[in-house]
Write a structure and sequence with these properties.
globular; alpha/beta; two-stranded antiparallel ribbon; 13 strands
Length: 224
């Protein structure tokens, strides 16, 4: 019982809401009733009623995970991802406040043990979520950083920015290198300030969908 009481779960995901913008230029989610409680009540004689909701959205909505298929036609899709790289992964946090510079190079990770770990990059950019500033010049990883993480065997990479690449450049080297090395990417995270630098387990598991490379996740960390 004592061990259970010492555990703490930290939510690292944004709420998905009707009409919200995750990535400028992509349509917002549309959330509505498919089966209302009032309408369903007529089907039962014991006072029961049920709600079935409907959501129409693009895959890149809220806090989401990219699989290799997002970048590569022959890469693993959501249904083919190994749970070992998504669930109960030992994690570390690398802190690079955006105020100190937007470009995050390999030097941010050198000296940290990343092999087999979830590497979560805390920039503080999530404070701009649901504002115009979120889509401005934002923190991102460099190609050198992505190469270093891939070479050193990181299991999954997350960031609390709007893109792990510089979305204002016409290239995506970080997606190319990480997904090419079969390292999933979790973007639009939040709450990383609530984590220690290490000593937690990380999970970000999408539905098992064939033929899709990205989907929202409920990312979280377990401490203790």
């Amino acid at each position: 019982m004592a061990d259970h009481e010492e555990k703490r779960i930290v939510d690292l995901s944004h709420v998905i809401e009707h009409g919200m913008t995750t990535y400028r230029g992509l349509p917002p989610p549309q959330i509505c009733d498919f089966w209302t409680r009032e309408g369903s009540a007529a089907n039962y004689d014991d006072g029961s009623s049920f709600h079935i909701g409907r959501i129409d959205m693009v895959a890149n909505t809220g806090t989401y995970l990219d699989s290799p298929f997002h970048r590569y036609e022959d890469g693993a899709d959501l249904s083919e991802l190994s749970l070992a790289s998504l669930a109960d992964v030992p994690g570390i946090v690398v802190r690079r406040p955006w105020e100190n510079g937007l470009s995050i190079g390999a030097d941010a990770f050198e000296g940290r043990e990343v092999t087999g770990k979830a590497v979560l990059v805390h920039t503080g950019w999530d404070r701009n979520w649901r504002t115009d500033s979120y889509f401005g010049e934002h923190p991102y990883l460099t190609a050198e950083a992505a190469g270093w993480l891939a070479d050193n065997g990181a299991a999954i990479i997350g960031i609390d920015s709007c893109n792990i690449d510089n979305m204002h450049a016409r290239a995506r080297p970080v997606h190319t290198l990480l997904l090419g090395a079969e390292i999933p990417i979790c973007e639009h995270m939040t709450g990383l300030s609530g984590l220690p630098d290490e000593g937690f387990r990380f999970s970000a598991v999408p539905p098992k969908v064939r033929g899709m490379g990205t989907f929202p996740v409920r990312a979280y960390a377990v401490l203790g």
